[in-house]
Design brief:
The chain is mainly α. The protein is built from four helices and no strands.
């Protein structure tokens, strides 16, 4: 049993929803849509990576991050491990990428 009345649960929900709308309006203004958060949301949806391309985008980000760490001598990676990363990303993404990223 919940030890709160419906009114005690609804009031914080209204307060949190108002905060969320205010934050969405701030984000919309930052994107150049004034306070129209619905237009900003639609713009964001339309500029996002297409669903079928997400695994490749993530793979490319991993490759870029690994290359950056190696080139700036922030970590040392043997050539065998470097190749294993590339092979693992290519093989695993074909199976797991579809499930985890929603292909």
């Amino acid at each position: 049993m919940i030890p709160y009345s419906p009114e005690e649960l609804i009031e914080p929900g209204h307060r949190e929803f108002a905060w969320t709308v205010k934050e969405m309006e701030k984000a919309a203004a930052a994107l150049g849509f004034g306070g129209d958060w619905m237009k900003a949301l639609e713009h964001t949806k339309n500029t996002a990576m297409p669903q079928g391309k997400r695994p490749e985008m993530i793979r490319d980000l991993v490759y870029h991050a690994a290359d950056d760490l190696i080139l700036n001598d922030l970590i040392s990676v043997s050539p065998v491990n470097r190749e294993a990363l590339r092979m693992g990303m290519n093989l695993d993404w074909k199976f797991y990428g579809d499930i985890q990223v929603g292909r």
